[in-house]
Amino acid sequence: MYLDEVSVVLVGEDSANQPWIARLAIDCQTASLPAPQSNSKIGVHDYYSDAAGMLYVLHRDAEAGDALQSAAVADPNDPNVYFLRARLCQREQRLDVAEREYRTRLGDEG
Questions:
Q1: For 109, phi and psi rounded to 5 degrees?
Q2: Residue 75, Cβ neighbours under 10 Å: how many?
Q3: Which of 12, 26, 36, 59 has the smallest count of CB within 10 Å of its CB?
Q4: How would you write the chain as a 3-class SS string?
Q5: What is the pLDDT of residues 9-47, one digit of tens each?
Q6: How many angstroms separate the first and last alpha carbons of the chain?
Q7: Greater confidence, 67 or 37?
Q8: What is the domain count for the chain?
Q9: C-alpha–C-alpha distance, residues 110 and 98, integer Å
Q10: Which domain holds residue 27?
Q11: What is the pTM for the complete model shown?
Q12: Are 58 and 7 a contacting pair, CB within 8 Å?
């Protein structure tokens, strides 16, 4: 099993995989992601944008929201940040905010 900001490798919990599971002991609900490897604005943005997507898939929504906020600071015009933020809001049933984020993503803020 492996987890970073852009990928996750999971193994099934059958008896053949128990040695791997026991040795690696990675809990996807609590495992921390590695720190960004770049200090450039683009590198930081990419890291947080990718991390937000991974955290969203793992249903770690509060952390995904924090990562999206950091990505938006690095690049406030990235439409993918608005799209994922909309998906988070939709999951939380905050549909008015989700619609606004989708519209912003599409360039239609009206």
A1: -85, 5
A2: 17
A3: 12
A4: CEECCCCEECCCCCHHHHHHHHHHCCCCCCCCCCCCCCCCHHHHHHHHHHHHHHHHHCCCHHHHHHHHHHHHHHCCCCHHHHHHHHHHHHHCCCHHHHHHHHHHHHCCCC
A5: 777 778 887 887 788 777 778 888 888 888 888 889 999
A6: 45
A7: 67
A8: 1
A9: 14
A10: 2-106
A11: 0.79
A12: no
Closest to 3 (Cα-Cα) out of 41, 60, 44: 60
- Residue 39 vs residue 48, higher pLDDT: 48
Give dist(CA 8, CA 72) in Å, integer: 24
What's the full length of the chain, in residues?
110
At 2, the pLDDT band (50, 70, 90 cuts) reads: low
Place of tokens 């993918």: 80
In this prediction, residue 1 carries a pLDDT of 61
Tokens encoding 8: 């996750």
